[in-house]
């Protein structure tokens, strides 16, 4: 196409789930319930750790940071998804789309780094218990947390910069449930092979590297647990890792298939389903995973309820 004939797209239409048009109201209610539960659950864990001094340990500080992170992670996409389910005009401006991509990917990258830090914390606690208090100090926790946030926020800058320079001359329908790099790149009216390659390299380094670090941590944890002589000791060690490992498997299991690939190899519905897993279900499940089987969290809830006079 002749560049002189380009008419720059100023907004995109997010199609969402086009095959489910007849149940939009029910999807809205379901998604709204999930979102409210996600916000309340993660906010509860964050406040519990802040208010209860017995939870001021590295493990729970990381969990509280993860809960706070999930509040922003879901806010980047779900409110707009809710609006689109009720609105006939499912549009988003070009700059709004880039902002949504930036915050979704930067907070997603921060979660990758944070889950890696949590795996390292569990490795030190189980594999080097005598050195753990002197290694994982409050000062180190703060430095790790800051590093996770800075690394995450800087992560998608190069990709966003490249996408912002692309010409978009139509069509402008995004075949996804929110703005993301792959569906937006498919709408550009020029060659995007450089963008795809940069996206693949950054995602591979970010996702695969952190996943391999988490994996190696758990290999060493498992080897250490198997050498524990008592069954009670093994159960205690496993209980401290089970919640984190569950979150890692759900989160990485979906983003690996979505972002670490050079060419599109799955259907649009497959991509939408994966997006629901890592953008909606994982943040929704986190509070339940970290609280339902966690005695410390349950006891902290009881202490706070007694302090407020709700429980005697």
Automatic annotation (TrEMBL):
Q: List where the protein spans the membrane.
A: 25-50, 62-82, 102-120, 140-158, 207-226, 238-260, 272-292
Look up the domain of life of the source. Eukaryota
Cell compartments where the protein resides: Cell membrane
User: Key word Transmembrane present in the record?
Assistant: yes
Membrane topology term reads: Multi-pass membrane protein
What Pfam families does the database record attribute to this sequence? 7tm_4
Question: Per its UniProt record, what InterPro entries does this chain match?
Answer: GPCR_Rhodpsn, GPCR_Rhodpsn_7TM, Olfact_rcpt, Olfactory_GPCR1
Any GO MF annotation of the entry? G protein-coupled receptor activity
The alphabetized UniProt keywords are:
Cell membrane, Disulfide bond, G-protein coupled receptor, Glycoprotein, Membrane, Olfaction, Receptor, Sensory transduction, Transducer, Transmembrane, Transmembrane helix
Per UniProt, residues of the G-protein coupled receptors family 1 profile domain are 41-290
> What's one GO-annotated cellular component?
plasma membrane
Q: What does this protein do?
A: Putative odorant or sperm cell receptor.
Family label: Belongs to the G-protein coupled receptor 1 family.
- Name assigned to this protein: Olfactory receptor
Species of origin reads: Camelus ferus
Q: What gene name is given for the protein in this entry?
A: LOC102521134
């Amino acid at each position: 196409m002749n560049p002189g004939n380009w008419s720059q797209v100023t907004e995109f239409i997010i199609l969402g789930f086009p095959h489910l048009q007849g149940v939009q109201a029910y999807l809205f209610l379901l998604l709204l319930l999930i979102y409210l539960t996600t916000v309340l659950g993660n906010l509860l864990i964050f406040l519990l750790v802040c208010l209860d001094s017995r939870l001021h340990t590295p493990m729970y500080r990381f969990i509280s940071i993860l809960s706070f992170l999930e509040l922003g992670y879901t806010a980047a996409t779900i409110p707009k998804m809710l609006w689109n389910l009720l609105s006939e005009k499912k549009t988003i401006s070009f700059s709004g789309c880039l902002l949504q991509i930036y915050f979704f990917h930067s907070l997603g990258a921060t979660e990758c780094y944070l889950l890696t830090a949590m795996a390292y914390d569990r490795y030190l606690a189980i594999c080097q218990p005598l050195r753990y208090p002197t290694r994982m100090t409050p000062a180190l926790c703060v430095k790790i947390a800051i590093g996770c946030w800075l690394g995450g926020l800087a992560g998608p800058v190069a990709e966003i910069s490249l996408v912002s320079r692309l010409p978009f001359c139509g069509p402008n329908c995004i075949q996804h449930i929110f703005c993301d790099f792959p569906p937006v790149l498919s709408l550009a009216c020029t060659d995007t092979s450089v963008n795809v390659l940069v996206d693949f390299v950054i995602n591979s380094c970010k996702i695969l590297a952190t996943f391999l670090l988490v994996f190696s941590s758990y290999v060493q944890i498992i080897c250490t647990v198997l050498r524990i002589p008592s069954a009670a000791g093994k159960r205690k060690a496993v209980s401290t890792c089970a919640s984190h490992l569950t979150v890692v498997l759900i989160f990485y299991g979906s983003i690996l298939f979505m972002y670490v690939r050079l060419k599109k190899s799955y259907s649009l519905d497959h991509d939408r389903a994966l997006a629901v897993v890592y953008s909606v279900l994982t943040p929704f499940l986190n509070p339940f995973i970290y609280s339902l089987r966690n005695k410390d969290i349950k006891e902290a809830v009881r202490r706070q309820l007694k302090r407020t006079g709700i429980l005697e």
